[in-house]
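Table 4 source record.
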Amino acid sequence: MPLFRQLEPTPERERQRKKKRKNDWTEDEDGPSTLISLCLQSLAENMKEMWAKDYAQKYMDQYFFRYIMGPFSSLPGELLEELLCILSSRNLLTRAALHLLLLPQLSCLSLSSACSLVNANLCSLIQIRCQNLQSLDLSGAQNISASVLCELLGSQSRLRSLSLAGTLCDQRVISVVCRQCPKLKHLDVSRCLVLTPAGLLPLSYQEPLVKNANISSLLALDIGLAENERDAVAAVAFLLLSLPGLQRLAMEGLGQACALIQNKQFEVTEEFTSREGVPLLKDMWAKRTQEDHWKDSSLLSTDREESFTLEGKIDEYLSLEESQTDASDSTDINEWTRTSGEGCEKDGCRSRACNGRDSVTTSLRDVQGLSLDTLEAVGQVCPELRVLSLDCLQSNVDDNVDSFEQAAVLARGLGRFSGQLSCLSLQFAGLLSELVPALKATGSHLLSLTLEGVKADGHISLLELIHACPRLTSLTVHLDPPRNNLNGEDEEEEEEGEDEGLLSNLPCIPHLRSLTLNVICLFSQQFFPG
């Protein structure tokens, strides 16, 4: 058998690979299976008894075999990926099958559903065979140490997406990723308890590589649970100021970090920056505002160049038509020049506004890990949000908190994003009817809505929710029973009468594709009579 040979990714091969990806190897579940799909299913069903049996008995523990090509070496990478997905979904993936299918043509590898199979030997095999990976998911693989992760990721220079959620990833791994994975755009280190928020700082500041400018998505919820909360807020603020291309961020302390940046309270972070050996946040803020000013100035200079070109054309026109000019033509030219002058005056005002810039805004469009009391600050620092995950339970520790007042604050906060949010996830402990005003403030453009912890209070509030969000394609509602049951049959009859009045004007969600309603209620017949 020939040894492994890595094919260099030429532009022609890249174009062919992209064309192949456009052709779906998998068919709709309700539609007929293609010949390719049937062949892959047959391979998966016979993998253990036929394809992997001989290898498992004779070669799997032989060191030299890791360099030898197996029976699937001629399959395209897309088919290998699909075969791995089928094996994973049917719980047929074994260590022997992985040894046969880990080949150089793989560009995407997900082992999250088979994390128990991931060990140091398998990582060594991936390191040797799969050096063209663009996406790697090792979520939940706790059998490999941080040192093994460092060795593996040191060979993955083409990675664009990496998930290490629930692993033993630490700051050493993050440092290796920054040095060896310059194309990385998405990183998921959620639930990495060994990793502290300060351990993410190499993503934004590390000598001699100052920053990873490509990173646009960072998921880091539930990391460093024993870490000082102030340090976590300072770390998030540092990432926000030093990674201008960041569009998706999920971290505890994000809302507090936005409030810190908005109020410029950088003095409380000086101890943290001194201890971590990174620049002061006030210096990072000044640098960021200067960079934003330069960007605005470059746009203004481009506008001025266009204005100068326009004036040159006017002068040329006047010189050519001087002998034939008349009063009406002069009036038209003067009007044209006056309009251009007004544009220059506007540019001057814009320039003065840039010179007076005294705030920083981010490019974040997707945020998670927010609490209600920081929503206003997040709106100031992140004005382009499209996806928002908000936990209102964090500010409801005291049972005496008025949920109606909390809902009013929520409505004001969400009103800032009216017409721009496409996805909203809320954890709220009040009545469903109390959320309706907040959803009316922002729900007209929502495509996805998830509500957790809300309390049921009849049918009308659910109908009003549907009225407020007519464009939904996905709706998930987890309803809890109210503290007090509905009292008496009279109230039930009144509610039924109101429901009958709404029958003539029932709301409609024509684009809905996914609906999940979980009703946790011991007396469900009282709230939702059959």
